[in-house]
Design brief:
single chain, 40% helix, rod-shaped, 7-stranded mixed β-sheet, alpha+beta, BirA Bifunctional Protein, domain 2
């Protein structure tokens, strides 16, 4: 008979001779130790196990021969065979644990990650400078008791012009200035709002006085992109309506805003101007926060000492009538400022294009 490894089985063993049986079993144990140690894989070790204790192994042959023994000899011989088989199995099991441990260590080494290596991370985004300015200005006026109001960007001509005392022949209503929409009926005159003032008219229609609001948002003009103009820009407009509001209240409010935004030493001055929806109207200038008017080479004010900042004035009585207020009972003031202008003034930005070019070299200077 030949075993599965191609080696001849042990010579016929006299099971009734304890010495002969012990020698055979000792030889099988020695083979188990040697062959198990030589097995370099679980498959090879499985072949060794089959050769030594499998169905066609010497151990199996010895077990089958127990039936020919006298009952008085069978118990001792069976016990010896069983102990040898258990020892062989233990040797094989120990080697299997070693092979599995080695395979596990190799896999861990192959899959190991060096946590000390540099790794790529995605940059955390931030608010655009324009949004930062909108938030900061809104917070200033909220601190003064104002509310933030919003409205649609696609607006009716009535709210954009008529309710704000803008006559039909005003040049701002021409298509060369205003972006009209081909939507709805021609009488509605749908357009992209030219300023955020329509928010004021809508708010007054829906809320009785007193009213204290700021209205930030996008505005649209039919302008060519250059260093100081964009067709889509941002405004923040303010409105205060109450009993006995005066021009002094307007100046004091804007002076406080200028001090909080540009610095505590900022001064303001007003120059007469004209706006359809305010009377009297004015332009507000703020003192140069960079040189305080003391340098002809100042990059911010160019030596003028003052920065032109926003338009303002007392609300025209016709606006109150249009929204259902009684101009004999209330008065108010309004103002509007370009967000881009505020950002450019404080940060020394000279070209409006920088706000829309998405150049990270520019944007990362204002992380927010």
């Amino acid at each position: 008979m030949t075993d599965t490894r191609g080696e001849p089985p042990p010579a016929t063993t006299n099971l009734g001779d304890p010495m002969d049986l012990a020698a055979t079993l000792s030889e099988l144990r020695a083979r188990a130790t040697t062959e198990a140690a030589a097995a370099s894989s679980p498959e090879a070790l499985g072949a060794v196990e089959a050769d030594l204790v499998g169905p066609r192994s010497p151990i199996a042959e010895l077990r089958r021969g127990l039936g020919s023994l006298d009952p008085s000899e069978r118990a001792a011989a069976g016990r010896a065979i069983q102990e040898a088989a258990a020892a062989i199995q233990e040797t094989i099991a120990g080697r299997r644990d070693e092979l599995e441990a080695a395979a596990r260590a190799a896999r861990i080494a192959a899959e190991a990650i060096d946590v000390t290596l540099d790794y790529r991370t995605l940059r955390v985004g931030g608010l655009h400078l324009i949004q930062q300015v909108i938030d900061e200005v809104s917070e200033i006026f909220v601190g003064l008791g104002y509310k933030v109001a919003e409205g649609p960007e696609a607006e009716l001509s009535w709210y954009n012009f008529d309710a704000l005392n803008t006559p039909p022949d005003h040049p701002g209503r021409l298509e060369s200035d205003t972006m009209y929409l081909d939507y709805g009926s021609a009488e509605d005159e749908m357009l992209l709002r030219a300023h955020t003032s329509p928010i004021q008219a809508r708010y007054m229609e829906q809320h009785p006085p007193p009213v204290y609001i700021v209205a930030p948002g996008k505005a649209y003009r039919n302008d060519t992109i250059d260093a100081t103009h964009l067709p889509v820009f941002h405004q923040i407009e303010g409105l205060a309506v109450d009993e006995a509001i005066t021009f002094s209240d307007l100046k004091g409010t804007l002076a406080e805003f200028a001090r909080q935004y540009f610095g505590p030493k900022t001064k303001v001055r007003m120059r007469p101007h004209y706006f359809p929806f305010t009377e009297p109207s004015a332009e507000l200038d703020v003192s140069c926060f960079n040189c305080d008017g003391g340098s002809s080479a100042c990059r911010v004010c160019k030596g003028k000492g003052w920065l032109e900042m926003l338009g303002c004035g007392m609300v025209d009585p016709n606006v109150f009538v249009a929204v259902g207020y009684d101009p004999d009972q209330v008065s108010g003031f309004a103002f509007g400022v370009g967000v881009e202008r505020l950002a450019m003034a404080r940060h020394g930005i000279e070209n409006m294009r920088m706000f829309i070019e998405n150049d990270l070299r520019f944007l990362t200077q204002f992380p927010g």
